[in-house]
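queue> holo job accepted (NAP)
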Amino acid sequence: MQVAFYGAGAIAERHIDALRRTGKLDVAWLASRTPEHAQALAAKKGITRWTTDDQAPLGDPAVEAVVIAYPTFRHAELIQRAVAAGKHVVCEKPLAGSAADAQQAADAARAAGKLLLVAQIRRFWPAFAQAHEFVHSGVAGSLLRATVDFQTEWDWSGRGWRVAERGGYMLDMHVHDLDLLLWWLGGPPRHIWGAGENRAEREATVVLEYPDRYARLEFCGRVAGRKYPTGALTRYQLLCERGRMEIQVASEVVVEQYVGDTQQLARHAAVGEEIRASWDGMWGAMAAALTEGAPAPVPVAQTVDNVRVVLAAVDALETRQVQELRT
Ligand SMILES: NC(=O)c1ccc[n+]([C@@H]2O[C@H](COP(=O)([O-])OP(=O)(O)OC[C@H]3O[C@@H](n4cnc5c(N)ncnc54)[C@H](OP(=O)(O)O)[C@@H]3O)[C@@H](O)[C@H]2O)c1
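queue> job finished
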């Protein structure tokens, strides 16, 4: 299947390489805003056509799907144009820059009968998929609490649209962790509250409150010496009625799983191997959905929820008021 690829930025090459490794997809067009960027990436990747006109690939009947790796605030409008032109869409996370835009994009894809697949890559890390299996198998009883603690030292002052647009740091970065928490907990919480600042250089704690349990995301962006990416540390912990799972991500991924006192799983992997496996896993599942009618690996409604939850968390930090999510 031929796809058109939108974006020549930081994440574009990873997608192009991984989608090609499936052996089922190839890139017919490369679109970007700046001609030199489109041309340079197309030449580097051996893609025959490049353009700065986003509409041009949509008019090509040989293109059956588009992959969107444009800035988040541009996703929803381009998704709507693509599905209206009869193309399936794979879109980078987060689905959109506002909950209304996310819902409109999802509705447009459904109305057009086209797939909308959002690249929530973390679900495809073997460690995080093992955590999902651990919780949903029920082997250790119900999940009581899930926490994520991210520690690094970094500066986002030069990161352009990522900090200038609504949602800022948390929408761009921690949509990954909130997606995992919602996936493990089975959906969005009823209430969200928190304290701190939505800034990569500072710290915050966000609590997702469910009727009978809670989840927590916390980050600190000024842990001396923990330079992102290789020095950053994230700890994930899932406590169940009769067991627990812990995942630590730094230069190594360390996974431990217990039922009672008995260790069921202990695994170490270099973080690069885990990431490479996640890209192959994600694009393998995307390609199967696009070309063989396999189910969407990440249901689009869950990715709309991700945007709602992250932005409610941002509101909770900014207003210092508990946010209630309407169902
Ligand atoms: N899964 C992950 O781990 C991961 C990692 C990074 C990014 N992402 C996501 O991928 C998407 C793209 O991120 P990126 O890091 O690749 O972005 P980036 O480096 O800023 O690149 C953005 C691309 O979009 C183009 N573009 C089109 N309209 C634009 C506009 N109005 N302002 C700025 N750029 C515009 C740029 O064109 P020109 O350069 O030609 O001007 C460039 O090709 C985002 O949704 C982001 O959240 C995901």
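queue> The chain has two domains: 2-119, 122-293+302-324.
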